[in-house]
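Dock phosphoric acid mono(formamide)ester; give full complex structure.
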Amino acid sequence: MLSVKHLLGIKYLTSNDIDLILQTAETFLDVINRPIKRVPSLRDITIVNLFFENSTRTRLSFELAEKRLSADVLNFAASSSSVSKGETLIDTVNNILAMKVDMVVLRHPQPGAAHFLSERVNSKIINAGDGAHEHPTQALLDAFSIKRKLGSVGGKKVVIVGDIMHSRVALSNILCLKKLGAQVMVCGPPTLIPKHISSLGVIVETDLQKALEWCDVANILRIQLERQDTRYFPSLREYAMVWGLNQERVASLNKEILIMHPGPINRGVEITSDVADGKQSIILDQVESGVAVRMAVLYLLAGRKEGEN
Ligand code: CP
């Protein structure tokens, strides 16, 4: 059983919780590769996907995971709702819960939104990304993808490259990988690496070639232009020249590394198309893993009895 009632961030999970989610996801990965992909585990459970920020992968992946588990699913997009008339987050959610909804999957631009909601409404909350804070299911699916390919996460060397400062994927990945015993490095422009990040137990490197030579896995991040009100590097062209992953850099290594990206990709900026679509890339495997991992999270949280912490 998980030690938490909600999935608000990797920060709140124990390593046993993470192991349990990854083990459960193995079972669901088998399920979604069968001819009959649906199981009755969440029959009579109603889940709302509440998205206040754009999403392709996370929203579709949660919806598919819920449907594969036979849950009833409601989809909510803030842009076409009464939020535009001034309704608050709490009022919106309480109105939805009055329709007898059991679980809420929330994506929101404000850091802490999922935590705030979990303290004010009587429902299980899953954080599907809160601003630049956490994206726990992305980190879990990334760990699951590494385990699928390399057999384990513990002891592996993972470099996270790019806009560490504005990335919820970076923070959740660092916390998750460290809890699983991986060695973690961050690499990018010094202006996009938070000053005190080494207190999380990560190595800091600004030279991409050295980072690539060190790692078993490179997780490449998008520049989060939507979260930047100032420029942190001269131009995207110069960013691509210094910190972009291209075939020349990959070919210069005397080993194979796993190449990951949470998406959406800006082809030609942080990664070139030949690398993103190349044989060392597991970007689409990550998407497949996402459905299995989200099924595991929903299944395990739904299994907790009321009154448990
Ligand atoms: N990786 C990820 O969160 O993608 P979306 O923004 O498309 O959901």
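Observed: The radius of gyration is 19 Å.
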